[in-house]
Amino acid sequence: MHTITFLQDLAVVMIIAGLVTVVFRRLKQPVVLGYIIAGVIIGPHTPPYPLIHDEATINTLSELGVILLMFSLGLEFSLRKLTSVGVPALLAALMEIFLLFWAGIEVGRLFGWGTMDSVFLGAMLSMSSTTVIIKMLGEMGKMKERFAQLVFGILIIEDILGIAMIALLSGIAMTGTLGFVEVGRTLGRLGIFLAVVLVAGLLVVPRLTAYVARFKSNEMLVITVLGLCFGVSLLAMKLGYSVALGAFVIGAIVAETREIHRIEALIEPIRDMFSAVFFVAIGLLIDPKMLVVHWQPILVITLAVVVGKVLACTFGVFMGGNDTRTSLRAGMSLAQIGEFSFIIASLGVTLKVTSGFLFPIAVAVSALTTLSTPYLIRGADTLTDAFLRMAPRPLVNTLELYTGWVGQIGGQGAGNLARTLLWKWGAQMALNAVLIAAVFIAGAYVGAHPPAWLSGLGLDGH
Amino acid sequence: MHTITFLQDLAVVMIIAGLVTVVFRRLKQPVVLGYIIAGVIIGPHTPPYPLIHDEATINTLSELGVILLMFSLGLEFSLRKLTSVGVPALLAALMEIFLLFWAGIEVGRLFGWGTMDSVFLGAMLSMSSTTVIIKMLGEMGKMKERFAQLVFGILIIEDILGIAMIALLSGIAMTGTLGFVEVGRTLGRLGIFLAVVLVAGLLVVPRLTAYVARFKSNEMLVITVLGLCFGVSLLAMKLGYSVALGAFVIGAIVAETREIHRIEALIEPIRDMFSAVFFVAIGLLIDPKMLVVHWQPILVITLAVVVGKVLACTFGVFMGGNDTRTSLRAGMSLAQIGEFSFIIASLGVTLKVTSGFLFPIAVAVSALTTLSTPYLIRGADTLTDAFLRMAPRPLVNTLELYTGWVGQIGGQGAGNLARTLLWKWGAQMALNAVLIAAVFIAGAYVGAHPPAWLSGLGLDGH
After folding, report:
1. A266 neighbourhood in chain B, CB within 8 Å
2. Which of A54, A55, A223, A238 would best serve as a mutation to test chain B binding (most B beta carbons within 10 A)?
3. What's chain B look like in SS3?
4. Number of residue pairs across A and B with CB atoms under 8 Å?
5. What is the pLDDT along chain B (462 residues), one digit of tens a residue?
6. Do A234 and B11 touch (CB under 8 A)?
7. Taking CB atoms and an 8 Å cutoff, what residues of chain B touch A3?
8. Which residues in A lie closer than 8 A to residue B224 (C-beta atoms)?
9. Is there a contact between B18 and A227 if contact means CB atoms under 8 Å apart?
10. Per-residue pLDDT tens over the stretch A217-261
11. Which positions in chain A touch B59 (Cβ < 8 Å)?
């Protein structure tokens, strides 16, 4: 009776998930945390014990949840938006990711964790939660403000670097090394894969969806889009990348089609169903006792996330030429981890290279930082006022001078048509070059100066 | 690597399903047949052979397809619509179901099939295809005509009797008997189950969905509705009914909520995804060689479906007081079998009481009768004209006299307020009483006069 077990599990997952999310919405907490708590409740570690019988099938469905989550992220991403990301967002995202990646590795070393656990922790901490931020800013009615636009730009860069990170982590986990040659080879192969899929996809997919859309059948469009989504995810998996990577890329390609709004509306309920299963499946992995045992790392990591992200993002946005208030608002919006971190954590579980305590810690940190996010956003203005009042006058003046100076550089090109056009044409290529160069330089640096925590691995890159 | 196998199967299913449906839409054939052909192509019986690896998981997902198909059928059903079904539709549906059930059993006996195969064949033939009819009438722009309203009424009665039939078939398959006491007990238990679920559901579900809808989150509504759907399906299964029954009932309850239109839009893509898997899974079961071996039953059954349904429905609608043209149009629209028959066939497979040849035959008959449906609908007017021209004058006059006489009876109550109100209040109860009485009388008759084909079973009912 395989089917009855499965149906029972699915019914339990959906009913408990539904109940807990209602409670969480009433408490104005994000639904994602509700799903995870639901998973803990029906999981094997908490009474009443035997609520889920066929964990393998639930995990298979939760893999579909990862694919559909990343596909939706890709749908919202859109290659065109990339060209509108400004220098401040790029600076802030790069600073945030490097600082938090380093902080994660250092914290792991502090608690004596293995290399892989530390590396995955670093990757998890470097990503913020698009879901939480969009929900919070939406509820506060701040979606249209300038700092919100900066935050969305930062999240887009995070998505790209997160995708590169997932590819690198898969490579590290499989070869066990992080040498210069490996990083280069992995990124080179990734670049070729992305280039081929993007070019082929942008040539074929818009024509395909336009053709299918002519039949005016939602059913055909859903099946076609799901076929594309699962097909490219499978292709990525077969080539040694994660399904998350493939799903994101095909999502970004589908985002370029004319039918994107119809497709988004059709995919949303399917994503909601499977992402609920994914988050509940995370809860199934969590033993609440782990949270008590690991309270120290949880507190330290939470502190590192909040302080690190606020500092890195505020500084990056400010360096890009924004005033103190906007910079602090943007920085304080990004101080949490969420679904992308869970996807990275589940990659570690799938590849069997991370320890069991990483997931509960990530969930606890995500819960704490999510809870603090609305207070941080609301506190940004108070903090700015206090800073402007209490900081020494010369410092405030210098900061304002810098903001004005960078703003002037950015404004000079206006009115010059040739330069404007050149800027538009060159923007995407330049941005891509900067991104790739940054990752390469970082890889080269790490390869040439392996930090102590890498000494456990064979470094055959040089 | 369970997950990679599963993802590969799902990707193959969606891609092939997408391709074949495009071809079928271009050929103006229903998408359902396209899915089944896709299943045959990727199935184990046709080259290239090894396209599906994990049939068990595909079958589990196809079970979700059955649940969501029946749930959608319930959503479109709505208890309120039941009160607007007229006497002609009721008469036609009862005649159709009894005639075709009998015809199916006789055909099974003719070819020397086992009792269970014959009984399931009878049940399969008695149902028409809502999907095919709605699609065909929609494409022809005939949805608003009087005969179309009659056809939809007949389909609603078919749904109810089909649900009762599924419960009876499960009972027969498990006890192996069809005595008076068994039928009575099964229908009695079914009645109690339906009454309890309906009363509890109508009290709780509208309040629940209204409460959840207040949060204005599609995600929460999807999860809540899926929880209800899977939960009640599971409850039905635990009590010994099929999941199809439970899904239909909870669908009919959800149809009474204020949020029905939002819910329908949200559930549609999920249903499309899983029903595609369900129909493809049917294709997986089919060995094309079976079609060649069983060409005789396929032809005979196709003929029985077309002739039997046209005769029974035309006669029933005419008896209810419609003119010859309307009656023939309605009768000729209903002459096919489809998804409900596949659900009954898969019930037989799940209960392991039917033979392997039943599915391919049902699919072939469904294909042939679906292909003939548009020609029959278009041919109805030609046939009526020919009949009115060639039939003896006295017969035509008698028919018109009858139509006028029944119409007069129906019209007498108009203007009398008390009678109109009484009619409205009493309509649903009377209709239900007629339905239940009809099934009971039929059961009693079969129990008292067991036909020869029942002699193989132990009849301990008297």
Report:
1. 269
2. A223
3. CHHHHHHHHHHHHHHHHHHHHHHHHHCCCCHHHHHHHHHHHHCCCCCCCCCCCCHHHHHHHHHHHHHHHHHHHHHHHCHHHHHCCCHHHHHHHHHHHHHHHHHHHHHHHHCCCCHHHHHHHHHHHHCCCHHHHHHHHHHHCCCCCHHHHHHHHHHHHHHHHHHHHHHHHHHHHHHCCCCHHHHHHHHHHHHHHHHHHHHHHHHHHHHHHHHHHCCCCHHHHHHHHHHHHHHHHHHHHHCCCCHHHHHHHHHHHHCCCCCHHHHHHHHHHHHHHHHHHHHHHHHHCCCHHHHHHCHHHHHHHHHHHHHHHHHHHHHHHHHCCCCHHHHHHHHHHCCCCCHHHHHHHHHHHHHCCCCCCHHHHHHHHHHHHHHHHHHHHHHHHHHHHHHHHHCCHHHHHHHHHHHHHHHHHHHHCCCCHHHHHHHHHHHHHHHHHHHHHHHHHHHHHHHHCCCHHHCCCCCCCC
4. 149
5. 466 788 888 888 998 888 888 888 888 777 888 888 888 888 887 776 667 777 777 878 888 888 998 898 888 876 777 777 778 888 899 999 999 999 999 999 999 998 889 999 999 999 998 878 877 887 778 878 888 888 988 988 888 888 888 888 887 777 766 667 777 877 788 888 888 999 999 999 999 999 999 988 898 999 999 999 999 999 988 887 778 888 989 999 999 999 999 999 999 999 999 989 988 888 887 888 888 888 999 999 999 999 999 999 999 998 888 888 999 999 999 999 988 898 899 888 888 888 888 988 998 898 889 888 888 988 888 888 888 888 888 888 888 888 887 766 654 444 444 555 455 545 545 555 565 566 556 655 655 565 555 555 444 444
6. yes
7. 59-60, 63, 350
8. 18, 22
9. yes
10. 898 999 999 999 999 999 988 887 778 888 989 999 999 999 999
11. 3
In chain B, residues with a C-beta closer than 8 Å to the C-beta of A237 are 4, 7
Distance of residue A30 Cα from the nearest chain B Cα, in angstroms = 11
Instruction: Kindly indicate whether the domain formed by A65-268+289-400 is annotated with CATH number 3.90.1150.10.
Output: no
The residue among A63, A64, A65, A82 whose CA lies nearest residue A255 is A82
What backbone phi and psi angles, to 5 degrees, belong to A448? -80, -35
Domain boundaries, chain A: 65-268+289-400
Check CB contact under 8 Å for B2 and A266. Answer: no
Instruction: Give contacts of A241 with chain B, Cβ < 8 Å.
Output: none
Nearest CA in chain A to B2: A60
Architecture field, domain B70-270+292-454: Up-down Bundle (1.20)
Interface-testing mutation among B33, B209, B223, with chain A (most A C-beta atoms within 10 A)? B223
Nearest chain B CA: its distance from A108 CA (Å):
30
CB-nearest partner of A220 from B7, B22, B233: B22
- Interchain pair A234, B56: CB under 8 A: no
